[in-house]
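B., you asked whether I could sanity-check this one before it goes into the benchmark set. Here's the sequence:
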Amino acid sequence: MTAYFRPATLDEALAIRAGRDVEIIAGGTDVYPNKTTRAGWGRMAHKDVLDVTAVPGLRRIEEVDGHWRIGALVTWTDVIRAGLPPHFDGLVAAAKEIGGAQIQNRATLVGNLCTASPTGDGIPNLLALDAEVEIASPRGTRLEPVESFLDGYRHTTCGADEIVTALRVPKRSAGARGAFLKLGARRYLVISIAMAAAVVDVDPAGAIDHARLVVGSCSPVALRLRALEERLLGHPVAPTLSTLVQADDLAELAPLDDARASAAYRRAAAEALTRDFLASLAETAARRAA
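And here's what the prediction gave me:
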């Protein structure tokens, strides 16, 4: 019989995590559907459950020194309502497209990250935000960039005795802005065919001095377009931005053929989404100047 644990402190949760093979639950919006799927295929054995929802202090979004800290129990609805600065706009846009209101009220950012699905809408945005993962264990707390935390298809570097307690996102200047574009078979309640997230920082002269562009749903893990990021630096925000995208910028993507789309279509869609973001960046700058 599956055991169920709901500790009241982080220390108690870490002791359980270190001593047993458990599945961690926060919102449960991935865990329970996956459990049903396994049962449908005849796999009835399940891990013990470690429910961390009673651990205090994990459902906060707060400014701490030079970063924002997003606790492990923060939901997508919390993100939507938090009034975060413009470089979080992509993450907020993703939050509004993840399931319906009921899912947004339950599902957590950290859960979306730890599931490590290639189609996880939050993941490209966290990469674009240069987010770090705060990970606790009986040995203490460590930080790891999201980019290295995701080390393969549906896999992370989180150890068997570790629990992710928060995400940390560095603050950016007032000129920073974020965006998220997603292509699916319909507008909402759909798994992404391709998606692109970006955070761009513009200096007072109107030139780009920081850029992160990330494509998701086109590889086992979301990937940054590093060559394009470098090419954008120092370039003024203008309608010609979208012409800077080159086919080679997406060469590292490894999209699959599946029921939702062909690999070729996914690659073309990712390039189009990237161009669309850069075009919209120039349009936004023009509106603000007007």
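One thing to flag: The longest helix spans residues 263-289. Otherwise nothing jumped out at me.
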